[in-house]
């Protein structure tokens, strides 16, 4: 609609001299966001309709609240980041809404019903508040690259929290939770962001040195020890803590993030190759010297040989089969038969009630999210943005691949959350913050920059003004 | 830095592609097997709560589904539970199914491929899909007569129409109540299952055709058939010493009855059930020919039938003394009452053994016939002329020999008694197999734990009247 014309006073030029002006597409974002809210709300309404025969009495409130929250998030973007990627918010609203609806649906199985969906909704609100906070107060994400060591220390500190006696609790064999005032929280989710920032900052500062100095060992350029040491230590320390806490899923995500950033920063294909070899060795050792991993492998390849031990994976497979191509419908399947259907196995619940079609659609939503993230990495102008955007997107991809792949028996199962859908506040909040960061990055990537002078401020700073212009101006043109 | 980012994008795309391909493969390759897995509670619950069609004897249902409230919307009930338990079987949530409930589960549930069209129509018209009804071949009077005849003793009766193979009576005692076993009160069903399995009388054992027992002298019919097929005549004389020593051993085999001299005709040997005469016949024929003949009647054959079936057995490689014992239905020969009824049926049907069956028709909810059984021949076990000779020999057994208790006024009845030693310290098994010309019926009566002395006449005295009662019930 109106957006192509919102070019800045000084059009930017590319290296070839042609002018690139990104469309802002804020109205598209609004429309898509509203459409996205209908996914979650539709699921919620259908669950009520299918289970009790009538639409829940509080439907105007719920619909109004969820749509209102989505529009509020949109308005914050419109106000602060007019050039941000228009697809990210709708994607996240769709995923978060589907997750909420599915948790609510599984809440209805026990009698009396549980209210986990309400807790998750509170967490969503909190996540959105932090999302807005990041967008409003973080004017330029590049400032974050000034403190790699501080970020690192904060990250490690968070990772260590669950080991503090009295604060940390052990759940399901992993000591990765802290409990404060009745709420449990997984600090590693937040530490993930801080450490990603730390890695990116360090690598941006040292990438030339890392890729050019040192000596060559075959195809791999080995940097000087004093350049590699600090980041190596950072990485090893955080990885060690997570392995010590028995959080293998998150440590693998970290390994992937670190390797990716090293590769993107140095442009040396030797690093991922080396990482693959290291991973293979590590996996071989884990398979041969730990029982835990062996069990995971056998329940991946031959789940039916030990029905009791692999009951969860098997039940999920039964669920997928029961769902078939188009699913049983909201409220009509039996996802409650699978343990942890709300958290780790929410993809199984989606597959059962929304079918193969629904599950594929969800996977495609994640794929789009990752694609947009990588696009903004390409479009960004500075190395820090590129590194951060590609790193965060790739972690999303890796996480979705690992958990949905695990649930569908493509890979051995690792206990990871399904971003934005799984029950769990820490993961939800962390992911909303990541999306806020990505939006900030994309705004800076797409924003028209005038030759010479870099203006940090968007042209429109007043929410009220912006709103007026959209309604009157947008409609006319 | 854009080149590595592009490569990363390719890797990410491949990961998502792998996820999509994998779930598609799951759907196409793995799902069908998962849906059929017995541990799949989703499928099991849905099937268990289905509105299954009834199982009918004549116009009376012996199994039906009733609507109810609670976790399962339909529950199965069996009006004449114990009488028809081996026919219907059970349909339990935790303990599978048996009988017609098992063999026709798809038709009863309406999920069979032959019902696909009506399933779609039901869905379109908004009707609750109901399964088809299975109409059995059972004659309620014959079934009742057999049940009354056994009078609570452990045993089984199988009666078949030998011209078609239709099973007319199918009783196994002691019986059980499939109602409690199939109860939607799962705790009650579990308790019932435990009690029934702990019962030392084994009420869940289907003695009619899922258990094999030494057939004793009734197997002499098979030996006699083999003898006739290999050139002997009813008046062929065979050695019948009072006591004979089995070849290469010191084992001495005696007779339970007076065989009437050192040599006797085949016909007389059958009438008085002479052990030594048939042991000698068996030795003359050899184990190969006996096994051939037994196979033609259905021994050691996976007969395709909807009647619960286990293979009856003739020893694979007996030596000479074992062959002699096998010829009189001892050693390792073992048969189901159904199998022995098929032997009598084959003889009565002029040598042609028909495939036994229990379900005459499957009908949809609109009573339209979905499938109907067409009688099929299993084997020609012997020539028609030899079969007629053997029929006459059996008739002689009833008129003059050990089977006199089965005589029915005005009906030509042929039969053969049997008493089999199970173990020296256990009561013997009493057998009687018979046929009658009018009604055309072949019967095997089997009584486990018969409280009788170990003699042929005693077996006939006990089991013969039951056969007679079933024949009379059919008139």
Please describe the structure with a list of short key phrases separated by commas or semicolons.
heterodimer; A: 477 residues; mainly alpha; three-stranded antiparallel sheet; two-stranded antiparallel sheet; 5 strands; 65% helix; globular; disordered C terminus; B: 475 residues; alpha+beta; Beta-lactamase; six-stranded mixed sheet; five-stranded antiparallel sheet; 17 helices; 18% strand
Walk me through what this model shows:
The complex is a heterodimer of chains A (about 475) and B (about 475). Chain A is mostly helical and about 475 residues long. Chain A has one domain (about 5-150, about 180-475). Chain A is about 65% helix and about 5% strand. In chain A, the strands form two sheets. In chain A, strands 1-2-3 form a three-stranded antiparallel β-sheet, with no helix packed on it. In chain B, helix 7 (about 140-150) runs antiparallel to helix 17, helix 10 (about 220-230) crosses helix 12 and helix 10 (about 220-230) crosses helix 16 (about 385-400). In chain B, strands 3-2-1-4-12-13 form a six-stranded mixed β-sheet. In chain B, strands 6-5-17-16-15 form a five-stranded antiparallel β-sheet. A two-stranded antiparallel ribbon of chain B has the order 7-10. Chain B has a domain at about 215-360 and about 375-475: 3-Layer(aba) Sandwich (Beta-lactamase). In chain B, about 40% of the residues lie in helices and about 20% in strands. Classes of the chains: A mainly alpha (about 475), B alpha+beta (about 475). The interface of A and B includes residues 267, 321, 322 and 387 of A.
